[in-house]
Design a protein that fits this description.
The protein has 266 residues and is α/β, with parallel strands linked by helices. It is built from nine helices and nine strands. The strands form three sheets. The chain has a five-stranded parallel β-sheet, sandwiched between helices. Strands 3-4 form a two-stranded antiparallel sheet.
Length: 266
Amino acid sequence: MSDAAPKSHGRKAIRPTLTPQELMTDAPDLARAWTAQVITLLPETFPGILGASLTGKALKDGLWQLQVTDLRRFGIGKHRNVDDTPAGGGAGMVLRADVLGHAIDDTRKRARGRMPLIYLSPRGRPMTQALIRDLARCDGATLLCGRFEGVDERVLEYYDIAEISLGDFVLTGGEIAAQALIDATVRLLPGVLGNADSAVEESHSAGLLEHPHYTRPAEWRGRTIPPVLTSGDHGKVAAWRREMSEKITQDRRPDLWDRVVGHRKG
């Protein structure tokens, strides 16, 4: 295996814009970059935090690319309506099937290879590190951001859309969850993290939560760094970190610990 740094697929400038599609339009030299397609009523919120730090640098370097579809463009009538009252009555509004269908069809014309279609939903499968690793091996993903009470169920059935949840709580829309999913995935792409070992040693990488970290100063407000970490004995350091990971996982996430124990027995 070569140790050469991964090559980017092109470089682009990132700057604030109210027309994000101009920033995120495909270019021929980005044809192989991991692609995040986002369908949203709030296109101005992208790239948002994704345009900063490591994900922003990777976006500028062409290691991944962002395509945003403004759902309002496919709205009905003079006012570009995208929602309607729920069948059977009830509070709130629901995103219309015909509007969503046109937006998805238009967006998926630019999809290539293995790019799953995902709806960010509180009733979906939990967003786990294992799921994120699988997405990082894909060519990208198409993310549908809901609003109001959600989307017409027929759309989810027709396109066989996978539902993924950020957690057991409800947000006002799917944009924050979509950005979290993209951030978690992009950082696993080759060349994004400065140190590839960072993705190996962090929380959830081996089913365990991460061990504590320390740095300078050696003493802070009466608290010192555990002596083993300054001993110079790499074997003891590795053993201590593993022990701490196991202890923290047992204390904070017994569900994860039970899974680890089950795998070991299997």
